[in-house]
Amino acid sequence: MSATRAARTRPQIHMIDTEAERLSELALNVEAAMPQVSELLLREVTRAKLHRAAAMPAAVVTMGAEVEFRDEASGVTRVVTLAWPQDADIAAGRISILTPIGAGLIGLAEGQQILWPDRDGRERNLTVVRVAQPVAG
Questions:
Q1: Which residues of 120-133 are buried (b: 16+ CB within 10 A; e: fewer)?
Q2: pTM for this prediction
Q3: Positive or negative CA dihedral for 108, 110, 113, 117?
Q4: Distance between CA 19 and CA 2 in Å, rounded?
Q5: What pLDDT digit, counting tens, does each position of 15-40 carry?
Q6: Within 10 Å of residue 62's Cβ, how many Cβ atoms?
Q7: What are phi and psi of 109, to 5 degrees?
Q8: Residue-wise pLDDT tens digits, 72-111
Q9: Are 42 and 86 in contact (CB under 8 A)?
Q10: Per-residue confidence at 136, pLDDT binned at 50, 70, 90?
Q11: What are the CB-based long-range contacts (under 8 Å, 24+) for 17-22?
Q12: How far apart are the first and last CA of the chain?
Protein backbone atom coordinates (compact mmCIF):
# COMPACT_ATOMS: atom_id res chain seq x y z
CA MET A 1 0.00 0.00 0.00
CA SER A 2 1.39 3.41 -0.91
CA ALA A 3 1.99 6.03 1.76
CA THR A 4 -0.68 8.24 0.14
CA ARG A 5 -3.28 5.49 0.23
CA ALA A 6 -2.35 4.52 3.80
CA ALA A 7 -2.80 8.13 4.91
CA ARG A 8 -6.17 8.29 3.17
CA THR A 9 -7.41 5.01 4.59
CA ARG A 10 -6.31 5.54 8.18
CA PRO A 11 -6.46 9.22 9.12
CA GLN A 12 -5.38 10.52 12.53
CA ILE A 13 -8.10 9.78 15.06
CA HIS A 14 -8.83 11.04 18.57
CA MET A 15 -10.46 9.32 21.55
CA ILE A 16 -11.42 10.19 25.08
CA ASP A 17 -8.95 8.38 27.35
CA THR A 18 -11.63 6.73 29.52
CA GLU A 19 -13.62 5.62 26.45
CA ALA A 20 -10.47 4.16 24.88
CA GLU A 21 -9.85 2.10 28.02
CA ARG A 22 -13.44 0.82 28.06
CA LEU A 23 -13.33 0.09 24.31
CA SER A 24 -10.13 -1.95 24.72
CA GLU A 25 -11.73 -4.04 27.47
CA LEU A 26 -14.86 -4.53 25.36
CA ALA A 27 -12.84 -5.59 22.30
CA LEU A 28 -10.85 -8.11 24.35
CA ASN A 29 -14.06 -9.50 25.89
CA VAL A 30 -15.61 -10.20 22.45
CA GLU A 31 -12.44 -11.43 20.75
CA ALA A 32 -13.53 -15.07 20.57
CA ALA A 33 -17.06 -14.31 19.34
CA MET A 34 -16.24 -11.37 17.06
CA PRO A 35 -12.57 -11.62 16.05
CA GLN A 36 -12.72 -9.23 13.06
CA VAL A 37 -14.43 -6.37 14.90
CA SER A 38 -12.33 -6.97 18.02
CA GLU A 39 -9.11 -6.68 15.99
CA LEU A 40 -10.29 -3.58 14.11
CA LEU A 41 -11.40 -1.84 17.29
CA LEU A 42 -8.19 -2.66 19.17
CA ARG A 43 -6.14 -1.37 16.25
CA GLU A 44 -8.06 1.92 16.27
CA VAL A 45 -7.73 2.37 20.04
CA THR A 46 -3.99 1.69 19.83
CA ARG A 47 -3.36 4.32 17.15
CA ALA A 48 -5.67 7.01 18.55
CA LYS A 49 -4.44 10.22 20.14
CA LEU A 50 -6.00 10.25 23.62
CA HIS A 51 -7.60 13.27 25.30
CA ARG A 52 -9.38 14.02 28.54
CA ALA A 53 -13.13 14.37 27.90
CA ALA A 54 -13.07 18.12 28.55
CA ALA A 55 -10.33 18.61 25.93
CA MET A 56 -11.96 16.55 23.16
CA PRO A 57 -12.89 18.63 20.11
CA ALA A 58 -16.68 18.65 19.57
CA ALA A 59 -16.41 17.64 15.91
CA VAL A 60 -14.91 14.23 16.76
CA VAL A 61 -17.00 11.03 16.87
CA THR A 62 -17.21 9.77 20.45
CA MET A 63 -19.52 7.31 22.15
CA GLY A 64 -23.07 8.71 22.18
CA ALA A 65 -22.38 11.16 19.36
CA GLU A 66 -24.80 11.49 16.48
CA VAL A 67 -22.88 11.01 13.24
CA GLU A 68 -23.90 11.78 9.69
CA PHE A 69 -21.68 9.84 7.30
CA ARG A 70 -21.63 9.07 3.60
CA ASP A 71 -20.68 5.83 1.86
CA GLU A 72 -18.73 7.24 -1.10
CA ALA A 73 -19.34 4.19 -3.33
CA SER A 74 -23.13 4.34 -3.11
CA GLY A 75 -23.52 8.02 -2.25
CA VAL A 76 -25.88 7.02 0.57
CA THR A 77 -25.81 9.25 3.65
CA ARG A 78 -26.90 7.90 7.03
CA VAL A 79 -27.34 9.43 10.45
CA VAL A 80 -26.61 7.17 13.41
CA THR A 81 -25.75 7.45 17.08
CA LEU A 82 -22.70 5.47 18.21
CA ALA A 83 -23.76 3.29 21.15
CA TRP A 84 -22.39 0.79 23.62
CA PRO A 85 -23.66 -2.73 22.76
CA GLN A 86 -26.30 -2.78 25.52
CA ASP A 87 -27.75 0.53 24.25
CA ALA A 88 -27.74 -0.31 20.54
CA ASP A 89 -31.08 -0.30 18.71
CA ILE A 90 -30.81 -0.24 14.93
CA ALA A 91 -34.49 0.73 14.56
CA ALA A 92 -33.80 3.83 16.68
CA GLY A 93 -30.59 4.61 14.75
CA ARG A 94 -28.25 3.61 17.58
CA ILE A 95 -25.48 1.41 16.16
CA SER A 96 -23.15 -0.61 18.32
CA ILE A 97 -19.47 0.17 18.53
CA LEU A 98 -19.13 -3.60 17.89
CA THR A 99 -20.26 -3.25 14.27
CA PRO A 100 -17.67 -2.65 11.57
CA ILE A 101 -19.14 0.79 10.83
CA GLY A 102 -19.18 1.73 14.52
CA ALA A 103 -15.55 0.69 14.95
CA GLY A 104 -14.62 2.61 11.80
CA LEU A 105 -16.32 5.86 12.77
CA ILE A 106 -15.02 6.20 16.34
CA GLY A 107 -12.41 8.94 16.62
CA LEU A 108 -12.93 10.49 13.19
CA ALA A 109 -13.62 14.22 12.84
CA GLU A 110 -15.99 16.02 10.51
CA GLY A 111 -14.64 15.92 6.97
CA GLN A 112 -12.39 12.91 7.53
CA GLN A 113 -12.61 9.81 5.38
CA ILE A 114 -11.62 6.22 6.07
CA LEU A 115 -11.39 3.12 3.88
CA TRP A 116 -13.01 0.48 6.07
CA PRO A 117 -14.28 -3.11 5.70
CA ASP A 118 -18.01 -3.80 5.99
CA ARG A 119 -19.58 -6.99 7.42
CA ASP A 120 -18.87 -8.80 4.15
CA GLY A 121 -15.21 -7.76 4.09
CA ARG A 122 -15.67 -5.28 1.21
CA GLU A 123 -13.82 -2.02 1.74
CA ARG A 124 -16.02 1.07 1.88
CA ASN A 125 -14.88 4.66 1.79
CA LEU A 126 -16.77 6.43 4.60
CA THR A 127 -16.81 10.21 5.05
CA VAL A 128 -17.93 11.90 8.27
CA VAL A 129 -20.21 14.76 7.24
CA ARG A 130 -21.39 16.01 10.65
CA VAL A 131 -20.92 15.17 14.34
CA ALA A 132 -23.30 16.25 17.11
CA GLN A 133 -22.34 15.51 20.70
CA PRO A 134 -25.02 14.34 23.14
CA VAL A 135 -26.61 17.05 25.22
CA ALA A 136 -25.71 16.68 28.89
CA GLY A 137 -28.82 16.38 30.92
A1: eeeebebbbeebee
A2: 0.87
A3: positive
A4: 31
A5: 999 999 999 999 999 999 999 889 98
A6: 21
A7: -110, 160
A8: 989 999 999 999 999 999 999 999 999 988 999 999 999 9
A9: no
A10: low
A11: 17/50, 17/51, 17/52, 17/53, 18/53, 19/62, 19/63, 20/45, 20/48, 20/50
A12: 45
Q: Tell me which residue of 133, 135, 128 sits closest to 68, measured CA to CA.
A: 128
Sheet with 123-132, strands from edge to edge, namely: 94-96, 77-83, 66-71, 123-132, 113-117
Distance CA(114)–CA(12), nearest Å, equals 10
Phi, psi of 99 (to 5 degrees): -100, 155
Backbone angles phi, psi at 64, to 5 degrees: 90, -10
